[in-house]
Amino acid sequence: MSAANSSSGETKVIKSDCILCVSGCGIDAYVQDGKLVKVEGMAEHPLNKGKLCPRGYNLVEYANAEERLKYPMKKEDGEWKRISWDEALDTIAAKLMKIKEEYGAHAVSIFNGSMAVENIELASFTQRFKGAFGTPNLISVESICFRIRVIAHLLTYGRFTSEDPETAACIVLWGNNPDQSRFMWADMIRERVANAGLRLIAIDPKRTEMAKLGLHLQVRPGTDVALGLGMLNVIISEGLYDREFVDQYTIGFDQLKEHVKEYPPEKVAEITWVPASDIKHAARMMATNKPMCIIPGTCSLAHSGSALQAERLLCIIQAVTGNLDVPGGWAMTPLVKLTDLRIPVEEAPVGAAEYPVFYKTWGRPVPYGQSMPWADQVLSEKPYPIKALIVTGGNPALTMPETRKFVAALNKLDFVAVINPFMTETAELADIVLPACTFLEKMGLGMVYGINAGLPYLILRKPLIDPPGEAWADWKFWTELARRMGLGEYFPWNTDREVVSMLLEPSGVTIEQLEENPCGIFYAEKNYNARENFGFRTPSKKVELYSQALKDEGHDPIPTHREPVQSPISTPELAREYPLLLVTGARMKEFTHSQLRMMTSMRRSAPEPFAEIHPAAARDNGIVDGEMIYVETRKGSIQMKARVTEDVAPRVVSIPHGWAIANANELTDLDARDPVSGYPLLKGLLCRIRKAN
Length: 693
What we know:
A hairpin with a 2-residue loop joins strand 2 (26-32) and strand 3 (35-41). By secondary structure, the protein is an alpha/beta fold. The strands form 8 sheets. The chain has a 7-stranded mixed sheet with strand order 5-4-19-18-17-6-7. Strands 24-28-25-27-26-29 form a 6-stranded mixed barrel. A 4-stranded parallel sheet has the order 11-10-9-13, with helices on one face. The protein contains 26 helices and 29 strands.
């Protein structure tokens, strides 16, 4: 669908949303003569209420980036050559069909990056193509990101919940720094701490600006489960839990009560580096200031080495304190009924056998395989060879753990195709590269699932400008590819309007309604009695503090502290060589993962990456602030500037991810995983630092 054109000189204001991150803020886009000339926050949007982050305010630069891919290209003798869409699609179709004939459909894999997972149309179409073609091997960033929280909530509650912090009396930022990732919550917290008596706890190895507003627990990376169990020890032993909720809506409390006796605050203090007095103080604050809302970081606990159990522990704390399904606590998110485009594939995907808890919850499979074993399977060809990969909406050569191994796997494949708006590090390794539209250039369905008690907020994303050159919407690529492969019956849609209308069909909301309400609409009313209206969708119909499902799979039925596979305790010999703990992925408000580093406006405020180290670590290694240093693990070494600060724990090194010039994933380790879910240990790897020559 073409963008809405304005006559010469006329400026048209179009209401839409920004999906450069998961928030989905509303925007007012000013378009003149077919060009985006200004972007402001949409005042009517219930999330951002007229404000934007630096990325949103600089969407004009993003829209006009010279680095955009404009035409399909193929690599010949190491050089890129422009080709037509017909040639590109014919080549890809022929390659995939030949691989399927020789090795089976499972030899073809698809990778969805964050822009694919968070884009409803693209996520739906890749899942449909996977099933129509017959491969089980759709992998994604869900193996290192948000999916683990969904699994933990399903195992504990039978349904997903989301934070409802706006009326909370106590907020716990557990590995979350909204200053850098969700400004609207940062603004709300600051205002309510100053004017409404909000009690704030921040749990983070780094003393963020948010942490300075309240009680800061500077936890050792990888020990969040121990910390939470110590808090529960205090809450239960002192009778501060919600007896009515526990008695009526949970099972397993007696086992939990007995279990947490093993975690007195004094013992937990030795494990976590958090003083026992602070553990007690935090636990009492959380239990006695109601409603209480824990806001975890999107990936913080997922990367802790105990991903599933850490996320489940937060579910248990929220329930035991009676802060579940109440205003200001966690809300039971109503689900938007959208058309399910998935076509079942009988064969299980990569990683399913090794991590069955990741793959299925209550018998329901997730759409994706576990990505962490993918590179090993490509390299070993066991249990079967994988020969091709199509990458959409992501840059796995930079963002997936242990870059060297992942790149080696990419180079071993017979065929790689990438569809992306930009020439990413992954695209450089491909055989064919295809230009994709950005969200500014196509119609789509915007859904904000984490705001206002998690109520779905729908908005019609409008095409603001025309795409450059021959860039296509991703759904069109999958549709045309399927048609060339004899799979057109599964893809009957011809316009983005048809696609959005089709997705909305089961919801009761029409595209016309969204057009009549350009600022968006709420799909459902707030409801804080879901436990009575809908119940908990677990086998017991209650909150399962004790998980028989996990026990049946051979895992702890109640979260138990287990040292990460790599730590000063579990691998002391390695720790002697690498005495510090590395935390990767520190958020920077200018960027989303590996995106936007080509933007001058973003690089002006964040020109380069840096390693944050404590003055004690700097002294021990002869390093001064601003010097170039090496950060090293047993997997690799990268170079960046040191930022010496007392805001990080003395034995912690904190670095951002997504920088090609100092790639954090040169240091990460695909073998260091959560044994339950397969999630990688990205926060707590052993490392060392030294001055660069």
